[in-house]
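Milestone M4 deliverable, item 7.
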Amino acid sequence: MARITVGVSLKMYFGHRAAREWLAEVADIAARSEAVADGRVELFVAPGYLQLLPALEAVAGTRVRVAAQDASEHDAGAYTGEVSPAELAEIGVRMVELGHAERRRMYGETDTVVAAKTTAALRNGLTPVLCVGETERMPVGDALAVAAAQVSSAVAGAPAGRIVVAYEPVWAIGAPEPAPADHIRALTSGLRSAVAELPGRDGSAVIYGGSAGPGLLTELGDDVDGLFLGRFAHDPAALREVLAEASALAALRERVPA
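Output delivered:
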């Protein structure tokens, strides 16, 4: 199946009530989307920790997957304030965002930490959404080397399992516009090739994040497997528009197999 993956992170923008209202709208959008219902478009949402259980309740009966925004490298123990990947899996969370640039910058997460968390996620049956990307503008070849090395480091020694690589050039996160389309295409297609060479990663995807919004998926076409959305998708109407684009792209890929 020519599946397109679309994810949305709420970061810490919404309070509890606002998140519940947003999740209810997303569940309704997903239920009305034929492509989400039949699996041609994979939709996942990453709310805050306190919103995970309400999110699971809101999307019950749909194919929307719920993701956590981070998880510990440990399954259990004396780790005050941490969130166990084993418990996330137990309650029904299916994916977990790891290695985001904000975690690296604000909390000092290194490639070693991201690798340990990736191993823990896969060990517990969670699909890691690995955020990778260069910190500043640089030539395509150099940027690809940086991002590919981050992916390789994250999965080295980890159990087999699908991963979703979210290419997010740090300099484009929160910017008024995404990175130039030619740059994105070169990086995502290069990362696809790199991931395809990794053993035990069948079914993996490479998506783009970094000020992604409506219109971008259509512009990128076959060079990307989807988008990781932030603030633009906090408006349910914008998310609906992106899902329509994803549905059209999935249908096109079914007619013209890669």
